[in-house]
């Protein structure tokens, strides 16, 4: 048995790490440059974007040998350092050469978020190094340094007490608001723990956590060039696999819902639950199709209870389904089955009231099997879908 206790002050609860954020001139106000570091090299597990045009920081990370350790992560906002070619990677090496004159570095890592297609302003970043307090443990400072279009700071922390009286802490910061697709999100997420977790367990549990959280959400259907989720361990406290998995899943699921809630142009969070599918893969495919559909998003924005766009999207997804076995509900209100193909006035009014809420569930039973999957999405106005040609990451 174990107990998970929510904590304040984010990363500051985890032993073995230091972190800070400063303004280096990329933002008019607020922090835009930060770091996470430790005196001793830490284990790293990471999951990155599936976008073929991965940004320079990801290419730089992948130059290191498998299972390498690091002691420093440099973070910046306002510039993604993506689509900058070999020079984008070389710029990172140049920055770390400068930083190495101030502090000892072991396989340093960089993460960036912001505008795509522009090289980093190395002079501003190097000048920012002089503002760092490398002995600082200010979670708020580094959490705000990675924010771009976020409307609120995303920060979580838990203490996990084990039955033998031992414990460990796990905490995280995350940024992300738009360009979110069921393949990570426009996001940077750093999860720190003092648990003595084996590297194999960390790799396994992080991938599982990402699959059931960040990979289930959608805002506007784009996949970023910079998506990064990292799990860092200082190895200074106790560890128990089931307890750690539970806490990690809690963090990633809560962050995933925050990302949808903070989606650019969105005002509602919707759970798309697909059940009765023939296979798990088909349930997942249909649920993600619903969460990612611009037609469905605009219908939700307009609070239109007509089920046609839901059915159409499921049919277009390619999963096995028949109109005779399909059942659609908005929360507990039946809007379609073969006996009720048309919405009467009473059910239409009830469905409309549900769609006026800031969160609700659309359930779709395919009637083909027992597999089930839930994805999460939001509403978007037609104007947002039409004109959004964003180049942020």
Mind explaining what this structure looks like?
- Heterotetramer of two alpha and two beta chains.
- The record marks 185-186 as: Cleavage.
- It holds the Pfam family ArgJ.
- Keywords: Acyltransferase, Amino-acid biosynthesis, Arginine biosynthesis, Autocatalytic cleavage, Cytoplasm, Multifunctional enzyme, Transferase.
- It is an enzyme of class 2 (transferase).
- The chain has 393 residues and is of the alpha+beta class.
- The protein folds into two domains: 2-261, L-amino peptidase D-ALA esterase/amidase, CATH 3.60.70.12; 269-387, Roll (Ubiquitin-like (UB roll)).
- Helix content is 30%, strand content 27%.
- It has eleven helices and 14 strands.
- It has helices at 56-61, 85-99, 122-129, 139-145, 199-211, 241-261, 280-292, 294-301, 308-316, 345-355, 382-387, and strands at residues 2-6, 18-22, 33-48, 69-76, 109-112, 154-162, 167-176, 187-195, 228-237, 269-277, 327-330, 333-336, 359-365, 371-378.
- The strands form two sheets. Strands 1, 2, 3, 4, 5, 6, 7, 8 and 9 form a nine-stranded mixed beta sheet that branches. A five-stranded mixed beta sheet has the order 12-11-13-10-14.
- Helix 2 runs parallel beside helix 3 (122-129) and helix 5 runs parallel beside helix 6 (241-261).
- The two termini are 41 Å apart.
